[in-house]
Structure formats: C-alpha cells, structure tokens
Amino acid sequence: MTETKKSPFLPKIGKLLKSPSFIVICILIVMLVITASLQPGFFKPNTINSNINSFAPLILLTMGQAIVIIAGGLDLSIGYATSMMVVILTNVMQKDKPESAIPAILLAFVACILVGTINGLCVGYLKLPPLIVTYATSYIWLGIGLFIAPSPKGTCIPWVRTFYTFSAIPNLPEGLKDLSKILAPGFWLIVIGCIVWGIVRRGRTGRYIYAVGSNRENAYASGINTSKTQLKAYILCALFAFLCALFYAAQNQSGDARMGNPLTLKSVAAAVIGGIALEGGKGSVYMGIVGAIIYSIVTKIIFFADISSSYQTLVAGIVVLLAVSASLIFKFIEKREKLKVVK
User: Fold this and answer.
1) CA 85, 130, 198: angle at the middle one, nearest 5?
2) What is the pLDDT of residues 157-171, one digit of tens each?
3) What is the pTM of this model?
4) Domains of the chain by range and CATH?
5) Which of 5, 109, 223, 295 could form a disulfide with 270 if both were Cys (CB 3.0 to 4.6 A apart)?
6) Reduced to 3 DSSP states, what percent helix, strand and coil does the chain have, rounded to the nearest 5?
C-alpha cells in the first residue's frame, strides 16, 4: 500500500493558528469591521489620515514600552517623560524666531538621553526594581516639566508643525498635498520608529535584549553585559518618547507637564494586548503596534456605539481585559503543546 504524504504546509498552518499573534490579528480585524460598520467613511483617505494621527502617540509609546518589557523591565515614567520633552520643545521655541526650533529639538533630545540613561542605570546597574524606579523618576520628570511651565503654555514654529500636518509646509506641490491626505505625518514617525527597531533587532543589541528578558542570569553566564543591555533598552524607550513629544508639540502647539500621563498605563496594556509577555523575553515590538491600534479602536467603538460617558471607562476596561485574556489563553495552549512534545 502506498502511504499518503502529508502536506508540509499543514504543520505550519497549525502552528500559525495556535500562535498568539494570530489571535491578536483576528481581534484587530473584528475591531476594524465593527468600527467600519459604526463609522461611515471609515476607510476614506481623510478618515484614515485622521485615525493615524489620533493613534500615533499611543503607538510610539507602546513601541518604546515593548522594548523595555521584552528586556525584562517596565517604564512607568514614559508618560511624564514625554510631557517634559513637549514642555521643553514648546517653551524654548519662540514664535518670531523659526531658528529657535533647532536648539529646542536638541535640548529635548538631550533630555531624552538623560531620561533613558537615568532609568537604565538604576535598573541595569543598581539592580533596583523597575516598577519602583520608574514610578519615582516619573515624578522627577513631572517636577521638571512643572518648573518650566507650571501651567500649559508655549508655542510651536510652523515648520515643526509638519510633524502633525503637512499643510504647514509652504508652497507644497499639489501632488504631495493629495499624498498627504493618506500618508499622515504620524505615519512617517511610526515608520521611523519601525526602521530604528528593525536595525536594532537585527543586530547584537536586539538579540541581547531578548536574552536578558528571557533569563538574566543565563544571559550573564553566557557573557552578555546584562546591565548595559537594559541601559540601552531604556534609552531606546526614551527615544520613542522623544518622537511622541515631537508629534504632541506639533499637534497641540503648547506644552503641558501632565499631557502624556494617561498614555503610561495604556502603553503597558497595549503591549500586553499585542502579545508581549510581562515577564520579558517574548513578543514582538511590531505586534505592540497592533495592540496599540486595538486599544485605540476600542475607544472609537464605544464612542460610535453611543455608549453613555458614565460607562465608557468601564466598557473600555472590559474589552481590553477580554483581548488580553484571549492572547493569554493562546499562550497557555502553546505551553501545553510544548509540554506534550517534551513528554
């Protein structure tokens, strides 16, 4: 009798269906279908452009948060750090001096490096708990922001506003104006973030970040400088906060020391929704983007479903909990399959 040969693609398909990333993508598709049915013109260029700009801050901070979580840490200061950079940008700039944007951006970038370095030194070299360290430093960044601007104020130079809208560019050709209706500035900032992480991920630092997050002791025994790796992870996280600060400054054209705080826990939740394990060493930064989009779409669904504002926070929490639970269930199934193979 001739044996029937099994298709080599069947095991791969089965593995894909059991992947946590697969369920996250499925959740995203369901969310998009629901939103499109509730919001007329959801897939129109102007609406897409508006949604990208609306989602960009959370996506950028989630990417930074994801890197730190994968490295075995956590950053509860990312929101206030972003706010501090926005305050620096908008208060160093002067309305009648376009050239003042350059020192403003440089100072904000220096602040970004200091934020990542201080957090990274405390967690990586001093071995302090990341939860406590970043909770404490968050108030340092808040204090600096309030010292510079006790109340919301500042300005934004026109050419810097291109980080939020291309219409701020003078004498923009008609072809590019049409293109800008689809490709929002927020999209390009996300692309820059993806390129940065893509370069890091393919290099030694990217491999070390995953190794340290999986098991710090084993990574150290393998000759990896675990402290330096976590320092780099926090600096990368701060870099994404800097990109978000550029966007916020262009969007709001003023600075508020508290404006980024609501995104801190949202970035953690979005990373988990994207399948990134809080214990570290697992997940994809790119899936963190999907998690951030899902989280952002939840608020849109609640709004267009005409749910009372009194219940919006409750419903958002339940939906996020269900999304996180779904990804965790698939992780549990994946672990069981691995145990069966071992046995």
Assistant:
1) 65
2) 888 888 887 765 555
3) 0.88
4) 44-168+175-330 (1.10.3470)
5) 295
6) 75, 0, 25
